[in-house]
Amino acid sequence: MKFKQSNAVASGSMWAIVDNLAQQVLSFIIFAVLARFLAPDAFGLLTVAHLFILFTRVVVFDAIAMPIVRTKEPNDRLYSWVFTYCMLASLALAGLMFFSAGLVSALFRAPDLKLVLQGMSASIVFYGLVRAYEARLVRNMMFRQLAVRSIFSILIGGVIGISMAANGLGGMSLVVQQVVASGLGLLLVVFQSRWLPRLVFDTTLLRRYVDDIRQVGLSGLLGYINVNGDALLVSLFLGPYATGLYNLAKRVTSAVYLVIASSMQKVALPVFSDAGTDVTALRKGYLTIHGITFFCVAPLLCFQAVLAKPLVAVAFGEKWLPAAPTISALALLYLLSSITQLNDYLFFAMRKNRVPVFLGIAQMLLAAGLAAIFQSFGLIGLSLSFCGAFLLVYPVSQTLLNRLLGLNVRLMWYALAPPLVGSIILCAGLSAYLLVIPDHLTDVAVVAGGVLLACLLYPSIVAITGWQIRVVNSSWHEMLLAGLRFRRFFV
């Protein structure tokens, strides 16, 4: 029995990673192709509409479904109850989005937003109907079905969207792409599940889970604001064109964070759980994951920050070059985010649940205040405002965590010195490279040369710095060995 359960966990973990990776890779490729045909304004309008849809998913649908997923022995009647209430909520929210589209477009000073909102309202219904199926599949560790759903729906929706954009249908091709992907995702999950829900209107269940629903909804709201508040502020202050540029910059930089840092954070959960209340084990696990995450994330984000301009020209075209400075700023933002998110995981593991909530609220308020002050400097001013909010909150988060774990500057230096020194020298080397290369080189050649330089420079500096630290303390080498052992969670 235990062997079967272990196999289920291993298989589920593998397919969950495949699902996440496939979504990121396919979405990025489709986005890069569509960017060749469409202007930033079209993506800005879609980003605004997507913000409303994300709100319904993480604040409403997840709040209804998550308490059932956490139940010890959920049954099909509970899943049918989730389906019923998510369906009712989706119909109400889709209607609200459709009929308020004119008012919202006036608020954002974007007349073309009305049609986009009305078209995207269909996706809210699809996401509401599919939520019970997703909850049922997750609870039964059926992640393969979810991965297959994601791959096919994103791929087919992307092909249709690219075909429409290539034929000159403009921003509506993005709307059709999103609606087709969400609708096809619903059909595939229904077919794979071989389960049809029935309508269950049970107010007793609602009263039983109302506290959990409220708690999940509040957590989802705070998370939504911290993750998407920046795009919302950009759209309110600067309009669709700047929002489209910011969306591209965020997708480019967040891809590194989502693939690497978020995967390491998933590994952190069992590590922190196994450590329990053992502060020494928690400290060692934290430093290990911290060092490995920074080792992987830092050079990629530094590369994006320095070579943002040729990277944008090669991948998306010259019309997107105004997004290059924002990519450089957001690279710093996600470098800090990979640290603070791991801190939040450890706060939760140590039963300090309120600390991340208060820090998140403080960061949100600081970002909004700084954005209001520096909006006159345009997109780069807002981007640096979001980075500034992170920089102001991070020392508080790290100081509180250091006190809990008994950490000091010396231990943090042992954990981060090799990738930190390597990243600083990498940035300096790439900057010098841009100054000395001939002006007649193509952007492709510039990027290729930068890749070659980074592959030679960063590992060399990390190896040299790591060896020097080993003379004093072997902790960083132990981290690398421990990092190699993390593969047992996936194999």
How would you describe what is shown here?
This protein has 491 residues and is mainly α. The protein folds into 2 domains: 2-228, no CATH class; 257-351 and 391-489, no CATH class. The chain has 17 helices and no strands. Helix 9 (240-275) runs antiparallel to helix 10 (279-306), helix 11 (308-315) packs across helix 12 (324-349) and helix 12 packs parallel to helix 14 (378-405). The protein is globular, with a radius of gyration of 23 Å. Residues 1-6, 471-477 and 479-491 have low confidence and may be disordered.
Topology:
Layout: H1 2-37, H2 40-69, H3 76-99, H4 101-107, H5 113-139, H6 143-166, H7 172-193, H8 203-238, H9 240-275, H10 279-306, H11 308-315, H12 324-349, H13 354-374, H14 378-405, H15 409-436, H16 443-472, H17 475-485
Helix pairs in contact: 1-6, 1-9, 2-3, 2-5, 2-8, 2-9, 3-5, 4-5, 5-7, 6-7, 8-9, 8-13, 8-14, 9-10, 9-12, 10-12, 10-15, 10-17, 11-12, 11-16, 12-14, 13-14, 15-16
Pfam family, one: Polysacc_synt_3
Keywords: Cell membrane, Membrane, Transmembrane, Transmembrane helix
Family: Belongs to the polysaccharide synthase family.
